[in-house]
Amino acid sequence: MIEIRSVTKCYDDIKAVDNISVTIKENTVFGLIGTNGAGKSTALRMAAGVLRPDEGEITIDGIPVFDNMEAKKNIYFIADEPYFFANSNAVDMQKYLCSVYPEFAVEDFYNYLVNFGLDKKRKIGTYSKGMRKQLALICGVCSGTKYLLCDETFDGLDPVMRQGIKSIFASEMERRGLTPVVASHNLRELEDICDFVGLLHKGGILLSKDLEDMKCNIQKIQCVFKTNDDEAKIISSLDIMKNEKRGSLNIMTIRGNKAEIIAVFATVNTVFFEALPLSLEEIFISETEVVGYDVKKLILG
Amino acid sequence: MMSKSSFLGSLKENSKRRLWVWVSSLLAFVLVHPLTLAMQLSQVHHEMDWLVKEYGLEMANEIIRSHFREMVIWMLGPSVMLMIFTVVFAVVNAVQGFSWLYNRKKIDFYMGMPVKRSKRFLVIWVNGILIYCIPYLLGILIGMLISAGNHGLDGGVVKVIFQALFVHLLLYLCVYHLAMLAVMLTGNIVITGMGFVVFCLYEWGVRRVDYVYRARFFRYFDVSSYSTNMRFSPFNMYSDIVNDQAGMMIQIKTVILMCIFAVVIGGISYFCYRKRPAESAGWAMVFSHTKPVIKILLVVPMALLMGDMVSNEVRYQPQQGMSGVWYVIFALALVVVLGSAVIQVIYEFDIKGALHKKGHIVISGILVALIFMGYRYDLLHYDSFVPDPDKVESIAFVPEQYESVDYRSTWINVKNGGIFREGSPSEYMNLHNTEDVCNLVKYAMDQYDTQFPMGKEMIFEEGMDNYWSTVKVTYRMKSGREVTRRLWVDVNDQQTGEYLDRIIGSPEFKEGYLMGASDRLSQLVTGSNDQYQVDAYYGNLVYEQKMRETEITKLLECYRADLENFNFTRVKESVPTGALRFEFKKELSGSYYGKGVSTWELGINIYPFFEKSIAYLKELGYYMDQQINVEDIDRIYIINQNSESYREIQELQKTQAGAEMILENMPEATEIYGKYDIDTRGYADYTSEEDIKKLAGCIDTMEMIYAGRWDNGAGYDSDYSIFVYFKADSEMNRKYGTYADYVFQEGKVPEFVQEDTAFRMEK
């Protein structure tokens, strides 16, 4: 488990991360979302033990991570612009990583290279940006560490590759309990990968929740009430997060269990009633609007 | 705990990232250096034919072997080439090894890995040393094989080669750590380069500021005793170690100092490495709290140095009237503002940064003003310092060029059985009559300050420079502190004369200042030091007699007895009748400089009041009543410049305009010499034995008598030039040459010579 407790980091006068606290559970895919400059990279670099927090503490399985080899043995950090040795190829990188990570899976490494269509003898400098990200991910997955921290690694990967990576994550999670932490500025990139999501904004965490919980706890209902009394009864009985009216049609975002909400609606007269599925974006928009943020601007630009 | 195999594996991995440095180092040490040695040796081979023709085969072989040996020592010993390679690779290895700290991508990669910071540092550090040492060792091995093939290798040479390896390794470590420290404190390579240059030159800059400001504002500052040498520069320390003349003790001390330097700088570098924040990659300065300190420490000496340069231009100095102070202040202020602005721009990589942190400009300005005023107004009372005699343990009172014997030294430094030109009598002089010296210093300073007030242009009246003479005074305080001042004394002043009689007449002064008064000279002469061949001569430096060892030993005893009567006034009133001249010769074979002879000369004056010495010299038959032997002389030719007449005519030409006026006043001069060509010289040629005899009693050799003596004693009349021509068949003609220069003592020119050479208005 990665625990980030009240961590703050400043660069000169700029507060990059402001008192964030997040817990990343094992065997889940954690997505860290935020706009550019939100503090995602700083948070990940601190979690990887590269940066020392000014305040607070970060522990990996209970061990402080900064300058601690025991903790770092369990982490592989892929930076937003992964570094490879000058004039090196995939084989050179594998040899180096083998000297650092004793459990590096050499066979898997070469299998993944073949599966992803990467030439092991070709100089990495001649790879495309996407190919370099794929290689970095392969290096990270094969390093044998428990936690894989990926900073914007999925941005720019095509859907087929993302699906490929997702399946690798799934199998590694199942096989050895890999816990990937993925930072991105794009919610859509993470929707199909993450189990947990943390939203960062201006250095602070807005929310951190299980995606399934979020999906189960927020419902979108489209209905037309027979009378105004019916509408008033529903509004007073349920936790309405948002109520949008288009003529007589009400589109409501309601916090709560789907069955319970339907049961409440059964007590009033409706001309039309429909429960709609919610996208991750919609859930986020609803959640953040409650606390006063216009998340559309934050995440979707 | 790090396992050996893991460490070696890490070294191997690190080496893969540093291949180009390995290749460069191998090329330099294993290819370029041995190749240069081979080429140099081959050039020596080319001399063989000529040497065989000139000296015969056996001798030529001997010379060639000696040349090979010298060449091998020159190339594989502490050579310039190896020194340059050492410095270049030290800087390159430090910067290349730790350059990953400049790059955020590399930092994320390396620092995310489960590798201890200390291990990573150690691997890079060790590898940086191996990149230097392994090629160096291979290079000298190849060089030694080449040398052995050319008969240029023996035990002595091998020793020098390995000594040089040790010294170069020390130099390497010092420079390597200094460059590492520059990397650790900065965030990009340009600033690292600037930082390294600052590290190398900063001490020089600070010492230079102190030196130039003391020299400018402190009239009693002794320039000669102030060293601007950088004590903490690896280059300077290296130069001290390889300098043969430095002496074993200094070399050992410097080796220890270099070791300490390397360890301390290395330790600081490691500390900075551990404390360096990962986010500092690309920043100008890694530790933000060092920024203002470094800025101020750079700006202050820069401004003061510029202030000195402008002071020179506008003649802002106490001796020249202190004009142009506003230019100096403007220059100081300008450099403070511009310097701070430029450094801030560098810190921020933004031209707009020039206007930031104005507080630093204010602090720098205040510091510059305080330091400048500290020197200008002598706030620390440096210049007026005269110690309390009770607090002084002993004093060295060294008059400058007192008691000179022509161009020969009156003093040589004998240390550890060797002779050194460096040093001064100060080291051996321990005057305990501190009250006399301190009183004289106070008196002389008062007189000087009254005569030449501080801040007003110094105007020397005619002849003044003859009697204002300089003395270097070194106070050895009871506290262990040593203070040196250089002051002027009016040697014509009666009170000063009395002080000087007591000081110069004291046995402690003679022991320290006069080589002949101490055992040091006797020990060199009596052969207790077999490093030197000693020859001694007595004469007037034209006529000379070589003396035997027993004679010179006895003469030195007489001389020491005569020194009882030696004091300032007696010497001032006298002209030496002769001098003892010593030649010390030492063969320099086996040195880096090859074979040769090093010679030192020392002179000791014999004055007319040295009765015992003169009696002994007479007994030996070496003493000359007159300064020439009349029988050797063919003729004496005298030229009188008649400078008084010359000045008169010149004065007329200056003050009276137009040819008519000159014609009117001195028609005959104009008629003879034209308007401008004035020749007032008078000539006399004495060839008769009678004239030569008359002159023999009143002329002295040019070498024995001076104009401008320290004590303003009897000098020679510079109007008269005397050429004493030796007879063609005389011994002197063969030994000395065709003629010798002689002079008349001031006020002792015979009347008939004055008459014969006077200026006359005739062609």
Describe this protein's structure.
The complex is a heterodimer of chains A (301) and B (763). Chain A has 301 residues and is α/β, with parallel strands linked by helices. Helix content of chain A is 37%, strand content 31%. Chain A has helices spanning 40-47, 69-72, 90-100, 106-115, 129-142, 159-176, 187-191, 211-217, 228-237, 258-265, 280-290, 295-300; strands at 2-11, 14-24, 30-34, 55-60, 63-64, 75-78, 147-151, 179-184, 196-201, 204-210, 218-225, 239-246, 249-255, 270-276. By secondary structure, chain B is an alpha+beta fold. In chain B, the strands form four sheets. A five-stranded antiparallel β-sheet of chain B has the order 11-10-13-14-12, covered by helices on one side. In chain B, strands 7-6-8-9 form a four-stranded antiparallel β-sheet, with helices on one face. In chain B, strands 1-4-5 form a three-stranded antiparallel β-sheet. In chain B, helix 3 packs across helix 4 (57-76). Classes of the chains: A alpha/beta (301), B alpha+beta (763). At the A-B interface, strand 6 and helix 3 of A face helix 1 and helix 6 of B.
Question: What would the keywords be for this entry?
Answer:
heterodimer; A: 301 residues; alpha/beta; four-stranded antiparallel β-sheet; 12 helices; elongated; B: 763 residues; alpha+beta
Mean pLDDT of chain A: 85
Main sheet: strand order of chain A: 6-7-8-3-9-10
How many strand units of chain B?
14
Per DSSP, the total helix count of chain B is 28
Largest pleated sheet of chain B: 5 strands, antiparallel
Beta-strand residue fraction of chain B: 5-15%
Q: Per the principal axes of the C-alpha atoms, what is the gross shape of chain B?
A: globular
Indicate the proportion of strand residues of chain A: 25-35%
**Oligomer status:** heterodimer
Separate helix tally of chain A: 12
Radius of gyration of chain A: 23 Å
The amount of helix of chain B comes to 40-55%
Order of SSEs of chain A, N→C? EEEHEEHEHHHEHEHEEHEHEEHEHH
Determine the structural class of chain A based on helices, strands and strand pairing: alpha/beta
